[in-house]
């Protein structure tokens, strides 16, 4: 661990580089979009767990997120006020189309790729895309808040402070806010504003749910949900024989997808606006990593195994040719384009 004073000077260096970072491509077109989907990758993003990044990489990542908070949105006709919010807005807009469907994992995989590309190409981050392997925290009895992911300097800050946030009126209006706040967990998990760490002064404009309100980063960390995220649970999931079995377990109400959202609490529990919390991307990168490991265990059969409905509760099955879209973030691709991490536009491995 570097001494505290050198952490401070590193922070200063990265802040300077963040300020000088400028967008390097045309609005709405990522540099990586110029590569043809399905062609072999020439460079790889070797994704790493947060605590396995160097301190410099962790500070670089955080400052790149803060840089996305400062960049303007590329599509100014929408509600997003920053480039960061544009990713959250895309998720809000598409929530009902990309959950409880066959392309849940493919769509979130590509969202994570686009986000990692933005950190590097638009904000000068030069490390790997990070994931949060919550099993490393769930397997031990140490309080979750002691995880390096919640560190105030080299992490994303800690818990919400009770009494510092109140949900807007009528949280039970599901069409306005999404199911969770008025749902089974109640307002209690919107504990309060995060008052330490890099995002303590950040103002978010989208959410909760589909509402537009100016608010802080809201969390409500609760150790009891660690039980959903243990490595034993992940091992059981990896035994799934088909994609159908795998996707239903990962996205079950008590599965590892919901587990990561509920453990952090607050905005992370809102299906629509969860992307306000930067941990959203590290949580989903870990879900993607579990899928990747499952695929890698039998690539001949699993790199083209996809199933499930195209719409929630629908009857039309998703195929490899099914088109998925990412408004304001990049061009449409097909489910096929997300399946093999060694081909464009993916180009990643997990360590
Ligand atoms: C619920 O929210 C939606 C979307 O904001 C709004 O159109 C509708 O009027 C609200 N319903 C009630 C009963 O407040
Ligand atoms: C991208 O996909 C969306 C949703 O399926 C569709 O409405 C849109 O027309 C597509 N855009 C292009 C350029 O094909």
From TrEMBL:
PANTHER family, per the entry: TYROSINASE FAMILY MEMBER, TYROSINASE-LIKE PROTEIN TYR-1-RELATED
UniProt KW Lipid metabolism keyword: no
Molecular function in Gene Ontology: metal ion binding; oxidoreductase activity
Record-linked PROSITE patterns: TYROSINASE_2
One Pfam family this sequence matches: Tyrosinase
Keywords: Copper, Metal-binding, Signal
Originating species: Candolleomyces aberdarensis
Organism superkingdom: Eukaryota
Name listed for the protein in its UniProt record: Tyrosinase copper-binding domain-containing protein
UniProt signal peptide: 1-21
Tyrosinase copper-binding domain segment(s): 277-288
